[in-house]
Sequence to fold (340 residues):
Amino acid sequence: MTSGDTTSSASEINPRLISLVGLLSDGMVHSGVDLAATLGVSRTTVHKLVRSLGELGLEAFSLRSRGYRLSKPVKLLNESEIRSAIDMATQLSVEKLHLVSWLDSTNDYLIDSLSGHGPPDPGRFRVCVADMQTRGRGRRGRSWVSPFGQNVYLSVMFEFPHEITRLSGFSLATSLAVTRACEKLGLQGVGVKWPNDLMFQDRKLGGVLTEIRGESTSISHVIVGIGVNLQMPPESARLINQNVAALQELGLPISRRNEFVGTLLGCLIMLIKEFVAGSFESFRMEWQGRNALLDRRVEVQTLRGIAQGIVKGVSDNGSLVLQTVTGEVSVTQGEVHVLA
Ligand code: BTN
Fold:
């Protein structure tokens, strides 16, 4: 695991703080004396470190004369646990799996790697997964709240060997990697919301941010960044201006975080290969089957104004199809708000 030694400029986090989280990650009580001895610091330093856990979006209880305990257990990324959830053929197509303790954004990490290491070879995937993002990015310039060791922040970069126009519907398709991974692990009820939100019971469970680089020729490099909430601490949830869901509610304990990362990565790489060989058309029925807004009345803020209607599905190129008072309308971009 790399820790902060990235090509991007993540703000500094004390490495001892990360070591402390590693020791406390089991959710058990650890005495100040033991923690100080293991970390090679004084008890006062341990106390100060515990007080700065908030920098990672974590909280610990101080239990008088007994020690410290995290308010919730966390699970750190582990390469062998991740790899054991991915089949060998898929693993062989991973050019490099970068596991990073903290960084700005996993998408930015991969974009920055283009200048240092060049692009991944055709047909291979460069992957970055982080325990925490200090500047996680969402769609439409929003930030993505990314506390330490609790959720999934994963990005994959690959070469897209066709004209850029053949990418239409790609980001919709990628959200199916999350529904497939959940279904593979027996987690039911995850839906997709156009264009690429993951939903559970009308609350946001995750999202996808797709970016493209080097589109001057017919070859471009695509970066797919996926964020999925596994266990969202209340202090982080408060920073988000919408209702959120987490896979823990569906029965996935945080102890299975690495298994989920590996399963998701396997599903994503498989899906990208399918898309590169075909188009969104072959994913359309699967997407419709998981459409969280089917037959719901919505309002879409588009560049040309507001469209209102009933969601009927998506077209072969990934546009949202609405039944409006004036007939069927296809929306290519915008923000969807549910009215009823
Ligand atoms: C959205 O707004 O719904 C998209 C959120 C995408 C978040 C993920 S987390 C991993 C990757 N790195 C980022 O900075 N953003 C994406």
